Amino acid sequence: MMRKRWRSRRRRSKPPSGKRKVWLIALLVAIFCLMQGFAYVDKKMKPPIMHLAKIRVKQIATEAINKAITAQVAEGKTTEGLIDWKTDTAGKVSGFMLNYNEHMRITASTMNVVQSTLQNVHMLKEKIPLGQVLGSPVMASFGPSIPVRIEPQGAVKVDLNTRQQNAGINMILVEVYIHIIAEVAVVVPFDMEPETVDTEIPISYLLVVGDVPMYYYDNQGRPVGSNGSNAPAIALPSGQTGVSSGGNGHTGSGSGTNNGNDNGNGNGARNSGETPGNQPQIPSPQQAPGSNTQSNGLELELDPPDLNGSFQSGQNGH
Fold first, then answer.
1. Closest by alpha carbon to 177, among 205, 156, 209, 196?
2. Are the C-beta atoms of residues 133 and 145 closer than 8 Å to each other?
């Protein structure tokens, strides 16, 4: 009896139907659109998101640091013994200098306070509505919230400085302040950028009063003060000098001074009267022949010209 041999036959896979092709194409299109949308959001929305996150992080960190340092200053732990005043023999203040030991103590204490404050800020969870990124006032409070975190980075820099400003006549206002620089990182989804927190906190004000005069003069030369009416008047120089000039050719040019001297220099025919520089004087065309000219108190006698058009000479006869 012959037995039939069973042979396994591979079933041929059926080609996908039309519906499956449509779903496959739709899935590919959806994935492509999702990737394009993600790229668009990452390119267009990331800068404004990071900008808002930096502003918010800087605001939070600055407020926390200022609050911590202000609380420390309010306890009176930072100004006692900070400044050593220098006085002269009369007991008046001639200068001041910062106490180095107190300076280092305040700097170290402030650094510890800032670092602990940033660690506490790191635990905060801040969120920014996505509507604020669009810049629309209507959509500012709508949309999903974007989480923002603060990560402390680097060491905190603390410096204690002073600056002076005028507070009146012979008075100076000295301000003692703390300059704090902290490096933090702004963390948003899929991005992180560093940010610098820079703030100044005044901790003390000192007024140095010097000798105040009874009166003083302003830029117009007028006395100002309680006894300004008894102050002597000051005449400001006007800066004007007397100048007299003559023409070129037959006349001379000169300059007058307050001492009454008059020196004339000319290019042309000259009269017989000689000046201290052995230069003859000539009449001015505006004056009649034979008239006297005065220049600052010096009187000169000029001879009239002859009929031939040449001047008479009392010495050489030219």
1. 205
2. no
